[in-house]
Write a structure and sequence with these properties.
- With 106 residues, the protein is mainly α.
- It is built from 4 helices and 3 strands, in the order βααββαα.
- It has a 3-stranded antiparallel sheet, covered by helices on one side.
- A hairpin with a 6-residue loop joins strand 2 and strand 3.
- Helix 2 crosses helix 4.
- It is globular.
- The mean pLDDT is 83.
């Protein structure tokens, strides 16, 4: 099993703080969702309100598969770090949806 913890970036820290204020741990979702949707790699957020992504690779994995995974992860994390308009919009929609579900449980 592997896990990666993400922290506040040196650049775009204001956007990071805004999104984290709305929904703590949202950056991990910005990695997990496109990792599966775009690259068909199944991973998981490690817990509620944390920016940790975890995965469980096959017991045996070849160099080609490892290179493919690293390339996909680099692509997704790079896009998420840019926090462009589309990613910010997704994050805010996801955060609002999460808050609505939490309120419904109370």
């Amino acid at each position: 099993m592997w896990a990666i913890e993400f922290g506040e970036p040196a650049s775009r820290a204001t956007t990071w703080r805004m999104l984290e204020r709305v929904q703590p741990g949202i950056f991990a979702q910005l990695v997990v969702v496109p990792l599966f949707a775009d690259h068909r790699i199944l991973s998981q957020v490690a817990g509620h309100n944390v920016n940790i992504v975890k995965g469980l690779p096959p017991l045996t994995i070849g160099d080609d598969d490892l290179d493919w995974f690293v390339g996909a992860l680099d692509d997704v994390v790079g896009s998420a770090q840019k926090l462009g308009r589309a990613m910010t919009g997704f994050a805010l929609r996801a955060a609002r949806a999460g808050r609505g579900r939490a309120a419904a449980r109370l």
